[in-house]
Amino acid sequence: MVTKQAIIDEALRLGFEDVGFTTAEPFESHRFYLQEHAEEYAWAESAGLSLLEGTNPRAIFPKAQTIIVLLENYCRQSFPTPLVNHFGRCYLDDDRITRDGLSLKIKAFRGFLRENAIDSRVPFNLPHRLAAARAGLGTLGKNCLFYAGRVAAGSSWVLPITVVVDRAFEADEATIGMGCPTWCRGACVAACPTQALKGGGRIDPRRCISYLSYFGQGLTPLKLRAPMGLYVYGCDRCQLVCPRNAPWLARNLPVNQRVAAMAPDFDLARLLRMDVDYFQERIWPHMFYVGTRDMWRWRMNAARAMGNTLDPAYIPELAQAFAAEKDERVQAMIAWALGRIGGNEALSALQGLGPGVSETVSREINQALQELK
Ligand code: SF4
Ligand code: SF4
Asked: Which atom from ligand 2 is nearest to the alpha carbon of 187?
């Protein structure tokens, strides 16, 4: 019968950074938390994330006895600056659709288990950060992220993968708890631009830029447009300011060439003027939380990010995109972006927008003109 050590050796051989074991007992404390904060997480249930179901591994896999948690370091290589300025790092090499990277390692690991007569599941909805801490792999941070204990220089640039198996193995000692140094006075909480972090390891996910960038409804409210800054999809700000992440960020890492090759596709101007074919071929296979029907959200986010660069070089792009754009949410954001960039060139571009625009867009144009004047 395969030993726990043989499983660990195989996971490390396949390139996972660390491995931990915990029981398949329900995550009761997490279930209570989700129930207490039902309003904050209602969107997740409607989006089909089934977080409540995920608190009981046996509801997903009745034969479950152990959860093997694999840690993947998704920042083992660095990413090009233009990408990390606008996208959360964890989405940059996400192969959940293309299935040509991490998925192959998970598949090989499950193949090894199968060869040893162990059945497994990799549910998407287990509380993977809590499972990792219960498996002794690290601790939590006040930004609600999981920090590795033994690898990746103790950083949060790791993705826990939960593999539920039908074989009992000795559980590792849990490391659940907040691992932040006492001298850090909550840099993440202070730095969160949309006040999503509430301190003490609590978050209102509906205020997080990650949520707002791919699930936010309608035209982004005025008060959030500047705070959301340059981010188009996801946000890393609370990780970038964290002293626990500084050692890993200081490393001189080789560039991830696979991601570098797709960087031009994610250029802001291209995103702003992309059509359905471009989106489906170049964007969606890598960042898929927004479907084709909601492509306007990508274009609106790109326009907002362009405005927040304060770079006049984007003015002609924004004006041209406005003329070709049919969606009033994107048109409205383009008007706002021109006002945000400011200056005479932006003023004259704004004066040239319309006529024949909707009331919402007309209001945005007038607002931007007022501010410029
Ligand atoms: S990811 Fe960004 S918006 Fe979300 S909690 Fe962190 S800093 Fe705040
Ligand atoms: S910034 Fe400070 S409080 Fe926030 S997660 Fe990092 S160490 Fe903890």
From this structure: 1
Q: Return the ligand number nearest the Cα of 209.
A: 1
- pLDDT tens-place values along the chain, 373 residues long: 999 999 999 999 999 999 999 999 999 999 999 999 999 998 888 888 899 999 999 999 999 999 999 999 999 999 999 999 999 999 999 999 999 999 999 999 999 999 999 999 999 999 999 999 999 999 999 999 999 999 999 999 999 999 999 999 999 999 999 999 999 999 999 999 999 999 989 999 999 999 999 999 999 999 999 999 999 999 999 999 999 999 999 999 999 999 999 999 999 999 999 999 999 999 999 999 999 999 999 999 999 999 999 999 999 999 999 999 999 999 999 999 999 999 999 999 999 997 889 999 999 999 999 998 8
- The distance of Cα 211 from the centroid of its chain, to the nearest Å, equals 8
pTM of the model: 0.95
Q: What is the 3-state secondary structure (H, E, C) of 297-363?
A: HHHHHHHHHHHHHCCHHHHHHHHHHHHHCCCHHHHHHHHHHHHHHCCHHHHHHHHCCCCCCCHHHHH
CA of 179 to the centre of ligand 2 (A): 9
Closest atom, ligand 1, to C-alpha of 88 = 1
Q: Residue with the nearest Cα to atom 4 of ligand 1?
A: 208
